[in-house]
């Protein structure tokens, strides 16, 4: 059987899922509630989101663990140990028979830790070991390279898995791209690339799918690693108390050929994307995969 990493390195493109949090909110999750706790309290609802993405054509699913580290769970009133939340999340994603990546969102700035605590920086103790039964680990929405590099260097228990690392950028006044901490796409490639199996870009302020094409080109100019993207559905606007994302499924799908030609080999969606977006992506991905067979 092809491993996830072999599939990622092939010329064929892989389709990922879209946003989880917003889909859970449609199923009743309150903004202040802990969505990761739902892996245990409302497993059928989390499973229904995975199923919707699998039915839309996603071959790669992310676990519902974006903020499953201990401090992030506690902050939202969840008293469960991270490992229980992670194991439950993996089980729910695995039900669909697709590749499953353990999802890790941003974590605290390393400079808030003292020397001793730095040694147990959370991803390595809280969520990475239980994720060793996934097909890979995806760290996303990262702005600061330093804690990520430190976590990667610590070689946690699940380090045999491919580690995929995705940065989030904003547009600068000069028209370039920087993370909130000031790192450019080129710096990301240079510093994170040697420690990652694949590099990505996801979400971002004023960084939609069109801007992702530019960022991918900057990655491709500097690395041979597989590149993946999870764009958001545009920058949302608040209307009648609801966040509305401007980019619909067909509009986003129309940018996929440019992304694929720029070198992307795995595509999903971040905030505002839905199973309808992934279904629209599937048509373009299928066409691409027929052309490279
Ligand atoms: Zn997002």
Strand order of the largest sheet: 1-12-9-8-5-4-3-2
Please provide the count of β strands.
Answer: 12
Q: State Rg.
A: 18 Å
- What share of the residues lie within helices? 25-40%
Structural class: alpha/beta
Strand content: 15-25%
Q: What is the number of helices?
A: 14
Main beta sheet, described?
8 strands, parallel
Categorize the overall geometry: globular
Indicate the low-confidence ranges by residue numbers: none
Order of helices and strands: HEHHHEHHEHHEHEEEHEHEEEHHEH
What small molecules does this complex bind? zinc ion
Mean pLDDT, nearest integer? Answer: 92
Terminal Cα span: 18 Å
Give me some keywords for this one.
8-stranded parallel sheet; alpha/beta; binds zinc ion; 40% helix; globular
Write structural notes for this entry.
Helix content is 40%, strand content 16%. The chain has 293 residues and is an alpha/beta fold. Strands 1-12-9-8-5-4-3-2 form an 8-stranded parallel beta sheet. Strands 6-7 form a two-stranded antiparallel ribbon. Helix 11 (209-220) links the parallel strand 8 and strand 9 (227-230). Helix 4 crosses helix 6 (82-94), helix 4 runs parallel beside helix 14 and helix 11 (209-220) runs parallel beside helix 13 (256-262). The radius of gyration is 18 Å and the shape is globular. 50% of the residues are buried. Zinc ion (ZN) binds next to loops.
